[in-house]
Design a protein that fits this description.
alpha/beta, about 270 residues, single chain, globular
């Protein structure tokens, strides 16, 4: 999916919502455990319910890899279902890959050729040669970790060099020599609040994938105030707040209601542009 296509989807649907498919078999409704593929059965119902209100889906690989081959089959079924029935939705494989060049090349082949997703989260801390293999695929995106929403993010990401530049700023500045706003995004946690101003000073045009709204306490309005640009420039992810809105048989309806509520808030923010 191109940048232009993504922006068109955002303004057509009046939404920049990404639904995170962090599907935990211990949290899905009990009646689904009788299905041949419970994880996919849950995902399918969530996707069908929330598709009108979002522009992207983000399966978190850890929740599938934990179940070995069966889990990866569930992941594959989910991707194929999205591509067949919801081809205009942006698919993010949240795998946080990144290694020496040859290994990164194989990771890129896995997700961009075998699974054919639109984008992949990538850890940038091994440097340029660990990232550039992912950028060799036309129409595909990488999403680099920049400033994350977890408590420990300040352990390293906020460290300053002798010139006062913080590590996350160095990641933003240096990585723009490798890719551009048409094939590279950044992960910035919603809990970082006003720090989005600092992000936008270094990367004014890039899309930001923003986890942490909802269950983690991030404010959508604050993210938009400091992080939105003329093209919107945001994909705001909500996982638990949507997919686990209910754990009973009405789970899909509850997920739809939660997604609709966020979409309506996003429509208001987009109207301000």
């Amino acid at each position: 999916m191109t940048r232009k296509e993504l922006i068109t989807q955002i303004f057509t649907k009046k939404s920049f919502l990404c639904v995170g498919l962090d599907t935990d078999i211990k949290k899905i409704p009990q009646h689904l455990l009788h299905e041949d593929d419970p994880l996919f059965a849950f995902n399918k119902a969530i996707i069908d319910a929330t598709a009108p209100y979002c522009v992207a889906y983000k399966p978190n690989l850890a929740f599938y890899e934990a179940f070995g081959i069966k889990g990866m089959i569930s992941f594959e079924h989910t991707i194929k279902y999205l591509k067949k029935y919801y081809p205009s939705h942006f698919i993010i494989a949240d795998a946080k890959r990144g290694d020496i060049g040859n290994t990164s090349m194989m990771y890129a082949r896995t997700f961009f050729e075998e699974y054919n997703v639109d984008s992949l989260t990538v850890a940038p801390y091994m440097g340029e040669d660990s990232v550039t293999p992912f950028l060799e695929y036309d129409g595909k995106w990488i999403i680099l970790l920049a400033l994350t929403s977890n408590k420990g993010s300040h352990d390293f990401q906020m460290m300053e060099d002798a010139q006062g530049e913080r590590l996350f700023e160095k990641v933003l500045r240096t990585s723009q020599q490798w890719g551009n706003a048409d094939n590279m995004m950044y992960v910035v946690g919603a809990t970082q609040g006003k720090m989005f101003e600092d992000i936008r000073r270094v990367a004014p045009d890039h899309f930001l994938l923003v986890p942490g709204v909802g269950a983690q306490g991030g404010s959508l309005q604050e993210v938009c105030r400091y992080g939105m640009n003329k093209d919107c420039g945001l994909l705001v992810n909500s996982s638990r707040g949507i997919i686990y809105a209910s754990q009973t048989e009405d789970f899909a309806e509850a997920a739809a209601n939660a997604a609709r509520k966020l979409q309506k808030e996003m429509e208001i923010e987009l109207s301000k542009l």
